[in-house]
Specification:
This protein is mostly helical and 431 residues long. Helix content is 52%, strand content 3%. The protein has a two-stranded antiparallel sheet. β1 and β2 form a beta hairpin. It is elongated, with a radius of gyration of 22 Å. The N and C termini lie far apart (57 Å). The N terminus is likely disordered.
C-alpha cells in the first residue's frame, strides 16, 4: 500500500515544468518558478540534500532579485546599489531570470531546454520595454552573485567516514542494495548559507549506553519501530511513511499553499522572502545536522537492537533478527539510512523550517494541510506548526530508524538555525 517509485514522482515533478510552458497562462510567476525549481530539485540526485542546496540557491537569488527592486530589506548577497534598477521594473522578469539562470547551472544538461522554454514563456507574458529589461538585469545580477558565492562550496566533495566496530559506534547496516557509505556525507562540511560554521550548533549528544535514557529510547523504538510491531497503530504507520519524503518537496508545497491569495495575501516580495528563508534554513539545518552526526558517530536502532546483548547494558535485551518498519518490503526507497543516528536529519531540517514558518507569520497557530508524495491525495492536517514538528519527532521512532533523543535534539538544533537566520538575515532595513 505504500509503494511509490521515483519514476512516478519525477513524472509528476516534470509536469510542473510543463505547466509553465508556452501557451499556458500563469498568473503567479513567483509561485510557478518555485514549483518549477522544486520539480527540478527532485531530479538533482543522488541526495535529498543536493535538492536542499539547489532550492536555497534558487530562492536566495530570487529574493535578492526582487529586493534589488523594492529595497526594503537586507540583501542576502547582492547590494541593490550595485545594480541600480528603478522601482517600477518587472518583478516577474526578475524572479524568472534569477530562478532560471541558477537552475540551468545546477541541473542535468538534458533539463536545460525545458527550463529555457519555461523562461521564454514567462518573458513573453511581460510587455517588452524598460520594465522587462530592468527586471532581467536584476535577476541576472542576483543569479550571478549566488553562483559566485556557491562556487567550490563543498557540494558532493569526497567523504570517507571511519566505520565503527565497538558497541555504540555507527556502522552502515542498511537494507539489501543500500549504499555502503553515506551519499550525503559531503553535507557535513558544506559551506553554510547563513550560519557561521557547520559545527556552530553542536547538540548535547546521544545517551550513554549505560544510561536509563538509553534504555528508555531503546525499548520504545524496539517496540514501536519494529516491522511487525503490535504496539504501533495504523495511523502511526502511515505517518512514519508519510514523512519519509524529501523535505524540499514537503515544505515548498506547503509554502506555496500558505502564499495563496486567500491565506495571508503575500505579494511577490513577501513570497520571495518566505521561499528564501525556509529553503536556506533547510539547507543549513541539514549541514548542522550532518556535521553533528559525524561528530558523534552513533549507531542506528537496527544495529543497536541486533547487537543489544553485547552493549554492556543488561537492561537492553537484544534481538539479532529485529527489523525496522522501514524495510524494502514496506515500500520503494524505504530502509535504514546509511548514516549515523544522532541527530535526526528530518528533526534538524523540519525544526529549522517549521520554526522559520512560525517566525515569518508571527504565530504558531496556522492551520494547514501538508502533502507527501508517499500519499499524494491524503494530506495530514495540523492546527499549529509545532504539532507538525511533534509528529515528525514521533514518526522517526515509529519508522524504527531513530532513537527519540536523536529526534528531539535534532529539532532543537533546527530551531537554533531558524533563530540565527531570523536574527541576522532578511530583516527590514533601518531608514
Amino acid at each position: 500500500m505504500f509503494r511509490t517509485t521515483w519514476r512516478t514522482l519525477c513524472t509528476g515533478a516534470a509536469l510542473v515544468v510543463f505547466l509553465a510552458a508556452p501557451g499556458v497562462a500563469r498568473a503567479d510567476v513567483i509561485g510557478d518558478w518555485n514549483a518549477t525549481a522544486q520539480a527540478e530539485a527532485v531530479l538533482i540526485r543522488p541526495t535529498a540534500h543536493g535538492q536542499a542546496r539547489g532550492m536555497a540557491m534558487v530562492q536566495g537569488a530570487v529574493y535578492d532579485a526582487v529586493n534589488t527592486i523594492v529595497r526594503t530589506h537586507q540583501p542576502y548577497l547582492l547590494d541593490p546599489k550595485k545594480v541600480d534598477v528603478q522601482p517600477f521594473v518587472s518583478q516577474d522578469a526578475a524572479v524568472a531570470t534569477a530562478a532560471h539562470h541558477v537552475l540551468v547551472k545546477i541541473v542535468a544538461p538534458e533539463r536545460v531546454a525545458a527550463l529555457d522554454k519555461a523562461y521564454q514563456a514567462t518573458l513573453d507574458a511581460i510587455a517588452d520595454g524598460a520594465a522587462e529589461q530592468g527586471g532581467v538585469k536584476a535577476g541576472e545580477a542576483a543569479a550571478q552573485a549566488m553562483l559566485d558565492a556557491r562556487a567550490g562550496d563543498g557540494f558532493m566533495a569526497a567523504f570517507s567516514p571511519t566505520i565503527g566496530t565497538n558497541p555504540g559506534g555507527w556502522r552502515p547496516i542498511g537494507w539489501p542494495g543500500a549504499p555502503a557509505n553515506d551519499p550525503d556525507g559531503w553535507v557535513s562540511n558544506l559551506k553554510p548559507f547563513v550560519i557561521e560554521s557547520p559545527s556552530q550548533f553542536r547538540s548535547k549528544g546521544p545517551n550513554a549506553l549505560t544510561s536509563a535514557g538509553y534504555v528508555r529510547d531503546y525499548n520504545e523504538v524496539k517496540s514501536l519501530g519494529a516491522i511487525n510491531s503490535t504496539t504501533r497503530t495504523a495511523d502511526q504507520t502511515m505517518a512514519a511513511v508519510f514523512w519519509q519524503f524529501p523535505p524540499a518537496a514537503l515544505y515548498n508545497r506547503l509554502a506555496r499553499d500558505l502564499a495563496a491569495p486567500n491565506r495571508f495575501g503575500l505579494n511577490t516580495f513577501k513570497q520571495a522572502r518566505l521561499y528564501a528563508m525556509i529553503n536556506i534554513a533547510m539547507a543549513d539545518g541539514a549541514t548542522s545536522c550532518w556535521n553533528d552526526k559525524y561528530h558523534y558517530m552513533f549507531w542506528r536502532p537496527r544495529a543497536a537492537i541486533r547487537e543489544g546483548e553485547a552493549d554492556g547494558n543488561a537492561a537492553t535485551v537484544g534481538d539479532p533478527a529485529w527489523e525496522s518498519l522501514f524495510h524494502p518490503s514496506t515500500g520503494a526507497g524505504l530502509g535504514t539510512p546509511p548514516f549515523p543516528d544522532h541527530p535526526s536529519g528530518h528533526g534538524c531540517v523540519s525544526g529549522s523550517v517549521l520554526r522559520t514558518f512560525r517566525e515569518f507569520f508571527g504565530t504558531d497557530k496556522v492551520p494547514f494541510d501538508i502533502y507527501s508524495g508517499r500519499f499524494p491525495t491524503q494530506p495530514r492536517h495540523f492546527e499549529r506548526f509545532s504539532l507538525a514538528m511533534k509528529e515528525v519527532v514521533d514518526a522517526r521512532v515509529w519508522g524504527g530508524i531513530h532513537f527519540r533523543t536523536a529526534d528531539v535534539q535534532g529539532a532543537v538544533m533546527g530551531k537554533k538555525v531558524a533563530f540565527w537566520l531570523q536574527k541576522n538575515y532578511f530583516n527590514p532595513v533601518k531608514r
